[in-house]
Amino acid sequence: MASSKTALFFGSAFVVMLMMVITIPSDVDAACPSPQILFAACGQYVLGSNPPPPPYAGKCCNILRSSSASCICSSIPAYARSSISAKAVSNVRSSCRVSGSCPGF
C-alpha cells in the first residue's frame, strides 16, 4: 500500500513540475543562442567567398526564426564580424525568411 501511495505522490509531483516547465514564460535572453551554437548552425552559410544558402527547415534557420534580431546580433562576437560576408547574411535572411538585421550587415 505504501509503495502505491509513493508512486502516486512522485507521479503527481512529476506532472506538476512538467506543467510548470511548460507554462513558465521564456524571456528573450533565455532564447539567445550562444556564439558557439550560432556558429555551429550558421557558420558555413556566412563564411567564405560564396557560401551556400541554408535550408529553410535546417538548424540555422530554426535558430534565426526562434530568436529576436537583437538576440542574434548580440551572439555574434565583435572579432568574428569581419569574417562574415554581408552578401551571405542577406542570402541567409532571404532563405530563412527572417527580416531582422544586425548593424553593419
Automatic annotation (TrEMBL):
Superkingdom field: Eukaryota
InterPro entries: Bifun_inhib/LTP/seed_sf, Bifunc_inhib/LTP/seed_store
Coiled coil: none
Transmembrane segments: none
Ranges of residues in domain Bifunctional inhibitor/plant lipid transfer protein/seed storage helical: 16-100
The entry's keywords: Signal
Protein name: Bifunctional inhibitor/plant lipid transfer protein/seed storage helical domain-containing protein
Organism listed in the record: Ceratopteris richardii (Triangle waterfern)
